[in-house]
Amino acid sequence: MTHRRQHTSLPRRIGLLGGTFDPVHLAHLRLGEEAAEQLALDRVLFVLAPHPWRKAGRAITPVADRLAMLERALAGNPRFALSTVEIDRPGPTYTVETLAALHAEMGPVDLTFILGADALLDLPNWHRPDEIVRLARLAVVPRAGRRLPSRAELEARLPGLGAAIRLQMPRLAISSTDIRRMVAQGRSIRYLVPDAVAAYIAERGLYRGA
Ligand code: ATP
Ligand code: MG
Fold it and tell me: Is residue 141 within 6 Å of ligand 1 at its C-beta?
């Protein structure tokens, strides 16, 4: 069946890298690249969280700007793609719903949720964490200043958390928070974000008053 053949050509091993991307930086991109290579992923979807409820309380850059920066950052890597699944959906965006929506949309795909140690440690506080670990495999990288607990310790926090695959990655102590602060201080952010992202930030005057 033609229909069937089309389906088998779709990417089957999908990685999801969710974030606020305010702004996207080189550690996000390297994380996607390491995951793609180490887990032989067909595609890494960068899922932009429009209104991250875990970050309520601080001003977040408009979605359109974060989206434009992410688009520029992902351009040129055929394994990377931007997912607007959370933007297209009204209301708060819960990872569990994103995973369910992707399963519904793409059929029987193999989903790996890629995250840094800080996000993994926060995951038990997310909406329906038990369901998240049922819907996707987890892959984690350590983050500067954040110790990754043992498998047993993680498992005690949430059954399924200890099974997270540990990816190798050189420690890159870059964060969006630091980049916003550097821009506000008038410092260069060159070589911390892709050139196209630095240019966009300068053009639009983002983060100057951060
Ligand atoms: P902020 O400082 O605003 O929280 P951030 O740099 O943490 O920004 P996020 O958009 O919050 O970026 O993170 C998205 C995902 O990327 C999370 O899973 C986070 O752990 C991971 N990540 C971000 N920066 C790094 C890094 N330097 N090394 C490894 N993982 C990272
Ligand atoms: Mg963060």
Answer: yes
